[in-house]
Amino acid sequence: MKPPKWIVSVVYAVLVLAVPIALFFSPLYPLVTPAFVHWQYKLRNVPPADIYAPAERIRLSDANLRFLQGAVTRAELEALLTDAGNLAMLPEEVEHMADVKAVMDAMYLAHGVALALGLIAALLLWFARQRERIGHALRRGVAIVGVLVALVLASSLIDFDAFFTVFHGLFFEAGTWTFYAEDTLIQLYPLPFWMNAVLVYGALVLVGVALTYALSFLFRARRSHPEAA
User: Fold this and answer.
1) Closest CA to 203 of 137, 150, 139, 143
2) Which of 21, 112, 114, 149 reaches 20 to 30 Å from 47, CA-CA?
3) Assigned domain for 24 exists
4) In terms of residue numbers, what domain contains 48?
5) What confidence tens digit (pLDDT) does each residue in 64-118 have?
6) CA torsion 181→194→85→83, rounded to 10°?
7) For residue 224, what pLDDT is reported?
8) Considering the domain boundaries, does residue 190 fall inside one?
9) Nearest CA to 34 among 54, 72, 63, 62?
10) What residues have CB less than 8 Å from 144, skipping those under 6 apart?
11) H or E element: which one contains 101?
12) 205-227, pLDDT tens digit by residue?
């Protein structure tokens, strides 16, 4: 039984919207890891910390990342000590990390929901014999995320300071995300660190865009072959 056109249209729209959300948030998984931060610390354009030795810097950064991943509690982050035995994080820094975790948890949730709904939508279109529409939806979704990531990369390259300010203004209250140069979060993640991260993020999204675009052409309507007379 062929489903009504309005149902096919709704399912198609769900797939179109799910694609950019899934692609836009996918790079979070490889970027928010100790491996990525350790790699960044080896880059020449990322300055060393002024008040922390390299090993200490890595230890403190790893603790912050484990907090974002849910492996370290807020109380443990608040009690994090430097090698000298002092508290590593100011209360304001811990509060900002809690805000960051809340935002990232929402992004991870949106990513998971988008993947699930996108897969369901693609399967529904497949079994409804709307194979061609799967490919078309993937290409439309790719176009949306392509425009978004182009805007992100262009604005960050033109004026990174302005981009960084606008980005934080979208998610955090004014005054809750600015710190002094000697504060731990700035020592761990200076501005060049974030400049590199945005470029790598954009590159990863573009890789996902290219792969999804190529995948879209596998979903083509089957043509019936003429029967022999």
Assistant:
1) 150
2) 149
3) yes
4) 5-216
5) 999 999 999 999 999 999 999 999 999 999 999 999 999 999 999 999 999 999 9
6) -110
7) 42
8) yes
9) 62
10) 16, 19, 20
11) helix 91-127
12) 999 999 999 999 988 755 444 44
